[in-house]
Design brief:
Elements lengths: L10 E9 L6 H10 L4 E6 L3 E6 L11 H6 L2 H17 L11 E7 L4 H12 L12 H5 L3 H10 L5 E5 L4 H15 L4 E8 L5 H10 L24 E2 L1 E9 H6 L6 E10 L9 H15 L8 E3 L6 H15 L6 E3 L2 H4 L6 H9 L2 H4 L1 E2 L23 E2 L5 E8 L3 E8 L2
Parallel strand pairs: 3-7, 4-5, 4-6, 10-11, 10-14
Antiparallel strand pairs: 1-8, 1-9, 2-3, 6-8, 9-15, 12-13, 14-15
Helix pairs in contact: 3-6, 7-13, 10-11
Amino acid sequence: MIAPLADSQRVVITGIGLTAPNGNNLAEFRDSLLAGRSGVSPYEIRYVGKTLAGVCQFDELRYQKRKDVRRGTRAGGIGIYCAQEAVRDSGLDWPNVDLSRVGIYVGVTEHGNVETENEVYELKGYDYDTKFWSHHHNPRTVANNPAGEISLNMGITGPHYTIGAACAAGNAGLIQGAQMLRLGDCDVALCGGVSESIHTFGIFASFKSQGALATHDDPARASRPFDQARNGIVVAEGGAIFVLERFEDAKARGAEIYGELVGYAINSDATDFVLPNPQRQAECMQLAMKRAGLVPAQIDVVSTHATGTGAGDVQECIALRQVFGESKPTLLNNAKSFIGHAMGAAGALELAGNLPAFKDGVCHATINVDDLDPECHLAGLVTNEARETGGVQCILNNSFGMLGINSVAIIKKV
């Protein structure tokens, strides 16, 4: 039996800001998930040509001037939009918040590739004369850039950094924010994940050379985790930033609370560059539940990581069956089927999309599952249409990444 945490150690979500290929705030995103509305569209990028992607359509100028957008990065702009929206959503009295006590912890898969590719491409037109290389290149490509751009835009003087955790990064940003609150390093944490991945041709080219880039005549049907006909990843951009506070602080100001982060874990496969290890994934889920004082039957919804790759989906399903068995109390879904794989933002977006289930009691579906792969059979998998649950109390969010990094976050209704 795990002793209850003191209110000063309990961490809750009080604000959410996001942009996804099918919604620019939580209400729009959730509506798309419940309606089965995809955000995948035709896309073209240099050298690779015509492909598919999840493209965001948020207002870049809502919180930045044109010169700031030109000077900064797409990842930074996504981060700024999401962070500003999250603070507005939180109801914090922002003008009176001590900005030296606000921390920014943003997960990313990769950063700087877009800017370097663009500079090399432009330089080619000047016979590679480096005097035409942009003096903005270094601040654009440093690893702390997305979090740093948020800091500059919002005047936040507390700690900021990015967490490089491949596609486990959205959860990792959330976990880092919670840890810093518990350590007393900050009083408000802006955390989550961002991705500008669709703007680098290298990611598309690499997945294509692996045979892991999804294709389909209908873009909306291209991302199809668990389906027998799945043929790879749809690359997406996006972001989701959460406002985290200690429960005692949120309660004192009468904040609306989306949920409490009650358990989390990060571990490593240590077995392969790309192929997941289901045993390590299972251990990560089990460790997060142990820290939360929960057993599998108490998890109402699992947000799967499943990317739509042949081997990756099967490996995760092995892990899920090991943890949750073949019983049906736990429902499972997947948001990548709607928006593609948003890399460093994936875990944060997928968690955000499920949190409204605490209020409406609905588990959104995994779409595009026309012919379930028998190796991906999961007793509680919700496919093609959202399902009424009768009440959701606990959500487990899986996010796994290359080089064998696994992250799990568990949110409970308050």
